[in-house]
DNA sequence: TATGTAATTGAAATCGGTTTCAGACAGTCC
DNA sequence: GGACTGTCTGAAACCGATTTCAATTACATA
């Protein structure tokens, strides 16, 4: 008992196991990893001692002597956004299957944090870094940031979900163009011609790409682009609310609204309701991300889904492959899917 | 150049710095940590070389020789639930201020995962483990699980957000009783007597405690407890929806519904709307957690808030203090607050 | 029984830091 | 000048694993 107290905090090591088994640490290590053959009788004895103490080798020591830590660091913009939490959990599950564990840091969109977190992950000797959202999504890459990432890439593979060029990263990105095409085809197929776009910043690449396809699709259908129908903002409910308020004041009201994400869509819904209009009878609403929010709203939102499980799997596969020195495509695409729910309907106007 | 390529993946060490500065590694270490005095001129020279290479010491090696890793492991039930993501980010920010970094693992409510994650964190030599949600919330502690936690506690402090007894953990929990008191006072103050409770499992301690106070408050106001008004379930929208459907079919309909969390409340709102009733004119709705969902709904939800920033801060403060060997209260409480929005109103029936 | 080969095993080096310990050196005081 | 003090500094041990290398043992074959 008193001995227990004295030992508090001191955990058991491979040498303790070796001593109790009357063998060397090398042999215990071999049993632990199955890295070389050990005489059956001896192996069983050692294994039973390992089990008895539920001994788990110190990951720090292991990481120090091995070349790999079997750890992947993930920097997300903000897990409080369900888009990132869904993607993170998908990565975690995929990583686990591959025998890796993941760490999570939130950059909260602050450049200094992103850089500091890169440094921490580097110090922790993760085998790869996945950065989702934040600076890597900028349409125009910040030079200082690119320089930093380039330095990181020299020792650790970096996989990003955004457009970041100017650094030797691997990219696994959503095919935004395809997503917007799906949305536009859906709306135009329902007879909508007066389509608005709310929320999002043009400095964010994914938003900009969406906007491009929005224009392209309208033009392709001979529909004139109405500048008043595009009201940017951010990615939160307030932004969607404000933008929609502005749009609903227009003389020539649109019959459909595309929100940059589900948050913005929730604000749009509120604004529409407050204007005494119905969804989808008077106005259709579509959004991007298909987070659980889409399912919480009334009416439930038609939204573009990114198949988070597959997306996470692809990110981890890439991280694992690159860190193992395998050749992997620099750029991989993830196909979005349109999930049709109750917020879109035929245009009667 | 070719040299660069050869060195790819090999990062710079304290010995490289020492060699370039013409001193020993010990001296560089002293400059790095300010752990002992080094002659000014020499110190500056070493520092400039450190800066030049942006050298950051290998955290694995450091953790191996130090007693602490300045790392805190967090096991959450599921960060996709905004309750946990809010709390996690609060912890991350608080940890950062204290010079710690945090890791995140999701147990997803699976016992085997919780145990495996405890083992991984132990191997990674985190200075403390914070477990939020999952098994630690059980009203009746699982013996095998308690045994596991007890073993973990022998080497690493564990802080939990739930009721887990039977293991020498530290607990920082929400004062559920106070929360439910606030809710009941609010509703009864608005004239409600027929109050229903939807969602949640009684095997979860926090839910059970809420139920107890629900009963207590009714009795204290001389209101008879109606068993039909309590419909348990889980913590998702569907559960709230199903439970509310059941309740709205009753002859003697309640005038207020308390949902176990914002998710369940969103389902309740949907059911109420589908029954052609209005919130709060016909029925008031209150919920717990005050996640951003409460703000997304129409009407916006009146909900119990846990002050996540302070809660996270308290968790980290406790983790840091305990791992430093300081004496800390075994049980600390966090006070909830009622945030009144648009889903509750005076009872006219 | 002698010999060759394959299977086992442990000593020692290594990973990249920190820290103790003792020696070198400089400055102060009689 | 000698003794004493205090400041700097590096060598070496240590943290807990893995792995190389060489030695030992076991076993099959001639």
Largest interface: A-B, 51 and 52 residues
Q: What oligomeric state do the depicted chains represent?
A: homodimer
* DSSP summary: helix tally of chain A: 14
The mean pLDDT of chain A is 94
Give a short account of the largest sheet of chain A: 6 strands, parallel
Helix/strand/pairing class of chain A, anyone? alpha/beta
Q: What percent of residues of chain A are in strands?
A: 5-15%
Question: What would the principal axes of the Cα set say about the shape of chain A?
Answer: elongated
How would you describe what is shown here?
- The structure is a homodimer of 349-residue chains.
- The first copy, chain A, is α/β, with parallel strands linked by helices and 349 residues long.
- Chain A is 46% helix and 15% strand.
- Chain A is built from 14 helices and twelve strands.
- Chain A has a six-stranded parallel sheet with strand order 2-1-3-4-5-11, with helices on both faces.
- In chain A, helix 7 runs parallel beside helix 8.
- The radius of gyration of chain A is 26 Å and the shape is elongated.
- In chain A, 48% of the residues are buried.
- The N terminus of chain A is likely disordered.
- Chains A and B meet through helix 5, helix 6, strand 2, helix 7 and helix 12 of A and helix 5, helix 6, strand 2, helix 7 and helix 12 of B.
- The structure holds a DNA duplex (30 and 30 nucleotides).
């Amino acid at each position: 008992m008193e001995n227990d107290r004295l030992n508090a905090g001191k955990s058991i090591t491979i040498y303790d196991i070796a001593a109790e088994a009357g063998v060397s640490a090398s042999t215990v290590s071999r049993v632990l990893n199955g890295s070389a053959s050990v005489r059956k009788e001896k192996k069983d004895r050692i294994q039973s001692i390992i089990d008895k103490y539920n001994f788990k080798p110190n990951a720090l020591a292991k990481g120090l002597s091995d070349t790999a830590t079997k750890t992947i660091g993930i920097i997300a913009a903000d897990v409080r956004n369900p888009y990132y939490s869904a993607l993170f959990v998908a990565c975690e599950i995929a990583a686990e299957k591959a025998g890796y564990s993941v760490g999570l840091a939130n950059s909260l969109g602050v450049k200094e944090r992103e850089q500091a977190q890169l440094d921490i992950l580097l110090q922790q000797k993760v085998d790869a870094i996945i950065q989702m959202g934040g600076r890597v999504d900028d349409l125009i890459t910040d030079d200082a940031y690119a320089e930093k990432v380039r330095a990181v890439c020299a020792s650790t593979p970096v996989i990003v979900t955004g457009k970041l060029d100017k650094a030797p990263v691997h990219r696994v990105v959503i095919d935004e163009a395809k997503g917007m095409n799906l949305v536009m085809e859906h709306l135009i197929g329902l007879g909508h011609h007066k389509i608005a776009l709310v929320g999002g910043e043009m400095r964010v690449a994914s938003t900009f790409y969406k906007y491009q396809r929005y224009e392209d699709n309208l033009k392709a259908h001979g529909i004139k682009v109405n500048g008043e129908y595009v009201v940017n903002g951010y990615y939160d409910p307030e932004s969607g609310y404000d933008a929609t308020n502005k749009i609903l004041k227009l003389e020539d009201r649109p019959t459909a609204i595309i929100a940059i994400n589900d948050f913005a869509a929730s604000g749009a819904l509120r604004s529409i309701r407050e204007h005494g209009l119905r969804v989808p009878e008077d106005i259709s609403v579509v959004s991007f991300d298909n987070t659980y929010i889409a399912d919480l709203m009334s009416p439930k939102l038609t939204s573009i889904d990114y198949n988070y499980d597959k997306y996470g799997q692809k990110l981890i596969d890439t991280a694992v492959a690159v860190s193992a020195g395998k050749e992997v495509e620099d750029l991989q695409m993830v196909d979005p899917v349109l999930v049709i729910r109750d917020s879109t309907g035929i245009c009667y106007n």
